[in-house]
Specification:
- The radius of gyration is 16 Å and the shape is globular.
- The longest helix is centred in the middle third of the chain and has 24 residues, at about 110-135.
- Helix 1 packs parallel to helix 4 (about 75-95), helix 3 (about 60-65) runs antiparallel to helix 4 and helix 5 packs parallel to helix 8.
- The chain has eight helices and no strands.
- The N and C termini lie close together (about 10 Å).
- By secondary structure, the protein is mainly alpha-helical.
- It has a single domain (about 1-210), classed as Glycerol uptake facilitator protein, CATH 1.20.1080.
- It is found in: Membrane.
Amino acid sequence: MCTESLDLLHIYMWYVYAGRLAGGADTIMGLTAVALAHAMVVAVMVSAGLHVSGGHINPAVTLSLAAGGHITLFRSALYVLAQLLGSSLACLTGGAVTMPVHALAAGVGAPQGVLWEAVLTFSLLFTVYATVVDPRRSVGNLGPLLVGLVVGANVLAGGPFSGASMNPARSFGPALASGNWASQWVYWVGPMIGGSLAGLAYEGLFMVRSGHQQLPSDGTDF
């Protein structure tokens, strides 16, 4: 669990500094810098934590894996708490009070925001299942890198509309640090729906049951 908190702490410190150096995500340069920062740090942190905690770093990932039977609900709750703790510590210690909180763009309502977050998170979790979870994966050890690239691409695609959070913990930290909870529920409902659907869809349609890795009995899991 400590690994999840430390991963989120490192990730958010990079988010804070990338956002400051780029002048925020309101410009093409800023959005590109934020997307690249997301892609690189997610790839590195997932790779670093994969053999310890599974490298979830995202409550939506944890819930999706729970929906697919790869982690128990009790352990999922512990993971989510650790992720929220890491995000909160990073934002409070990294000066994220001045960092923009995730917010819907002008003209984008809450239903559209939920849809954006659900679709983006679905693509992220589908990639996680295909490149990391599925024992038949053919990408070797490139899974974390591919997951990071999808995160970066989704930030470029959805950032101007919903902020492309795809991660409730990522939205929770800045909201806690700034006290701005506007539309916070959008960044929980959308990713949780998209992540759960991705897990159920991949498990039901693509996972070969004979090769399905059951939950380990030694207390370790993805």
